[in-house]
Please model this.
Amino acid sequence: MTIQHKLSHYLAQGEVGFSVALASSVGVIMASPVILTATSGFGMGGSTFALAMVIAWIMMQAQATTFSELASMLPTSGAVYDYISCGMGRFFAITGTISAYLLVHVFAGTAETILSGVMALVNFEHLNTMMESSGHSWLIGVGLVILFGVFNALGIAVFGKIEIILTFVMWVTLTVFAVIGLLKAPAVPLEGWFGTPLNLTDPSGMLSLIGMAMYMFVGFELVTPLAPELKNSGRNIPLATKLGLTAVAVTMFLYGAAMVHQVANTLVDPTNAAGPRLLDTPMAIPAFAGQVMGPMGKIWLGIGLLFAGAATINTLIAALPRILYGMALDGALPKVFTYLHPRFKTPLAGILTAVIVPCIHAWYIQGDLNRILPLVLAAVCAWGVAYLLVNISVVMLRIRRPDFPRAYCSPWFPLPQIISSAGILIAICFITPPGMNPRDIYMPFGLMLGLTGLYALVWTIFVQKVHPFRPVEIEVVLEKEFGKASACISILDKELKYVAPLV
Model:
């Protein structure tokens, strides 16, 4: 059987369907930091932020076509690592993949760990007061990380069932509150539908809002590591990413408009004119819930936000270990990451890493909410670097391997890659919003990226002993993937076999 026939057969197989793909794409996007970013963004920029969201959505739709094409060519658990390896070589693959997932987990994963508990608890006044008095409300998120680490250790089947439920409840909750908030009479005098009117007189301010808005969509590609386990992944991945991005955009537009309709963006401390405003803080959430539905609304939205945090944590802990596992199989990481649980066949070293990293970082900064936005924006920079490398890789593969079959082709090539790359570069350059020190974003990002690049260079030359910039042949990667699937049935099949009696 030729490699093309094997690829077609591999794309058609799988045990989990479109619903899991869509839930994975939406679940990681609609995270607690994303909801807080939307709240702060609409409070800060109003209609200008809404325009920034439209631009960011277009950028990410273009980026989705790139990921979808590469996933149809290389349906592997290594995902981004394999895409960049075949396009640009292992040095860029290691740098890009660690940037996109491990560094992002350090930044955005920590933000999610802290906020998932905080944003849910603010809706439960007595419990929140008790936890805040001890300064440990962020420990709720740490508990969620540990809990879902255990669930993911039990297998992909458990992950799929949990993710669909969490994502559905979270998305429906936010949408219902947004619609009701818009149907009710506005409680705040408005200058425009999204609060403050459109302002294009400050180009740099507008561009900085695009960086914030971009964070509301990044992470959709975390469905790609599930390609070996998805039925008809050549169709389901592009459909899930595009539909997921659109569903999130619609909900966030409704939510943002409802928020500025119902909650006044007043100063938290009236005596400090330079201090934070209500929509910059998690306290805007219970104010909104109470205005829309009263006391019961606070409880409902609190549960929904808890589910939002859980869905994101669940997806991160499912995807990151599989990416690390795929990299370790190629020798890009220590062999410990190839270890699978003897019964459930899950990558335990990767899961343990995915759990420890945000928990340790959250403990190190003691859940400081003032450090959340810089972490979020540093994560955007890390994601942006990886997205740029993926765009370059799909272009290089179009040039070098036009003959290779693609179950999905990025339309209007290379226009989507140009649009998303230009947007990402602009967003990174203007990532700092007004009132924030650029060093708080660029220093941690630059330091971590530099260390990652140094590791990639040393590891490829002295440990792997390969040319760091020589692209890997697609057939080599696929044969390794098919061999792994043949020898092991596939990670998923073994997980299903052992987990089936438990679910």
Notes: The radius of gyration is 22 Å. Confidence is low (pLDDT under 50) at residues 487-503. The first helix runs from residue 3 to 12.
